[in-house]
Predict the structure.
Amino acid sequence: MSLVSGIPGKDFSIEDVRGEFPEELEIQSLPHPVDATVTVPGSKSVTNRALLLAALSDGPSTITNPLISDDSFYLMRALTTLGFPLEVKTDKDPAKTQARTLVHVKGQRGIIPARDERLALFAGNAGTVARFLPPMLALGEGAYVVDGVPRMRERPVADLVDAMRSLGVEVGYSGEEGKFPVVVHGGGIRGGEVRVEVSQSSQFLSGLLVAAPYAGEGVILVAGSGRGSKPYVGITTSMMADFGVEVLVDEDLGRFEVSPSFYRAIDYAVEPDASAASYFFAAAAVTGGRVRVPGLGNNSSQGDLKFVGVLERMGCGVEIGRDFVEVMGPERLCGVEVDMNEFSDTMMTLAAIAPFATTPTIIKNVGHTRRQETDRISAVVTELARLGVRVSEERDGLRVEPGPVSGAAIETYGDHRMAMAFSITGLVAKGIRIRNPSCVTKTFPEYFRALDSLR
């Protein structure tokens, strides 16, 4: 990936973020256990929340260590299209071992500068962008259309639209009912109390929370059935507090109350991405080696860090310090049965190393992943079977049997996590090739370079 500076969409494009990739990439198996310290990029979930909170704040904010990838690019370009002053800067100080990226955003205190009659905003396949923008756009005075790639038009959004309508927002569809593109007519958010269904995505709740301080009256959001991915909502409320807005939370009732307020502009450092780190922790686990990731620690708000607890149950040594996490793999992993609903982005990482365990691995309660970048349960089952692994598919999970793994070309279905997870399988099994490896640019453009550093 090229180091980028300037205004997204003007001084650099999505191609600059992505760089060049082959159509197929063979993963070279490792001749020895890994022993490495790996730096991973900033959290996608935290980066995109920080960008939105900064844009809604009362002045200039600086975001340090943001993730620069497809998802964050689409959000930054949307914000500049909406009229928010935003600039990416790369600090190339030769005294530093690594270049540092900063994003400067000038918040407008809840005002959306652009007031076009039908302003088009493209979210790619980024759920945080497509689902966080509509509540924010309701604060404007124009009409805004949020759309994405064809897969985004298959992903759920109706529960968000229904909740927005209950809060007094004029919002609808420009195509098929219940699907993107979504058309938001500005005019503000009235406020009040509304039930938000989150069984398909907690992003509906988080998007409404982010915009809630600028509603005409207080907002009370009650999470509906299937309160999955609660840690992601926790990231949202924690970051809202960092920017000066407290959310009153009743965990037992799934109730979130926000009073009229405004966000303060601050300087915000994005912690490393726990989901991205999971691949390197898995590499240590499956090779019997050691990997340390600096910057993550016991104060992390990211639920995906729970993945190291699963590895510990499989026999790994795990140390979580104040500003690092280290995993040491055993001589041989043992299988586990685990509910991964609250950290499902790491489900594929676990499935990819499960064949190397001594006993079966059962992954449960991840049915919502069928509606993400691809049907992730079906995709994982299909590709494990392609490798000769005995695997069975359930409605909301899968079971992986231990056994030999054969080489094959892995279909990624355009899903970044498929590519990254099965590349870890390739560190142990020979002959594994990743098709369309460029899909990793969605969240980790430098992934394969970081993977190669394990050698």
Notes: The longest helix spans residues 274-287. DSSP finds 13 helices and 23 strands in the chain. The mean pLDDT is 95. The CA atoms of residues 58 and 150 lie 36 Å apart.
